[in-house]
Design goal:
This protein is mainly α. The chain has one domain. It is built from 3 helices and no strands. α1 packs across α3. The protein is elongated, with a radius of gyration of 15 Å.
Length: 78
C-alpha cells in the first residue's frame, strides 16, 4: 500500500517516507535480535542494557526504557 511517493505520519516522530519506514523496521528487527541473543545467553536486563543493543542506530527514543520494554516482551511467561 506504500509506494515511493507515500508520506507516512507516524504516531511519534517526523513525517516519513517509504525508505524511512523500511530503515526503522530494519533497526527494530536488528535490536530485537540483539536483545534476544543476549537473553538466550542468560544475560539479565541490566547486562542487556550495558551491552548497548541499540549501538549504531540513531535513537529516537529513551534507550533504557525501550530496551526494557523489548526485553520484557520477549520473556516467556512464568
Amino acid at each position: 500500500m506504500v509506494n515511493d511517493d507515500s508520506k507516512i505520519i507516524p504516531g511519534h516522530g517526523v513525517l516519513s517516507n517509504k525508505k524511512d519506514m523500511q530503515e526503522y523496521r530494519s533497526m527494530l528487527v536488528t535490536v530485537r535480535e540483539r536483545i534476544w541473543k543476549s537473553m538466550k545467553e542468560g544475560k539479565t536486563l541490566e547486562q542487556v542494557i550495558q551491552a548497548e543493543p541499540t549501538k549504531g542506530f540513531k535513537a529516537a527514543f529513551d534507550n533504557k526504557g525501550w530496551i526494557e520494554a523489548a526485553y520484557n516482551s520477549l520473556k516467556k511467561p512464568s
